[in-house]
Target: Protein translocase subunit SecE
Amino acid sequence: MATNKKSKNASSKQGKDNTPQQAQKTDDKAANLVKEEKKAPQSTAKNEKKTAKKSSDKSKEPNIFQKMVGFLKGVHHELRKVTWLTKDELIKKSGVVAGIVGIFTFLVWVVDSGLGALAALFMNI
Model:
């Protein structure tokens, strides 16, 4: 019923400029809208219960133990992708790191000693 009123309003808005072909197109559109409204399924209590059950099943989260097992499986999977160093590579690279740490330790000690001596010089004045 509402679509028929819409089509009448649309044709009355156009006034005298409305040709018979345009009127036919408007009527066809109105008929299609009526058919689409009839095709739409009406929700019933039974359909709503089914959808409620399906949504509640999907919304359940796994418990804490299932989450922990899933996490540990993921960790194991990622650790299998890691390329580990050989013993010789590990020794060489550890030596490089220890050397760089030693150099920076010495530089920080020099700067600290210099600033300490400079502060002592200003304090005695």
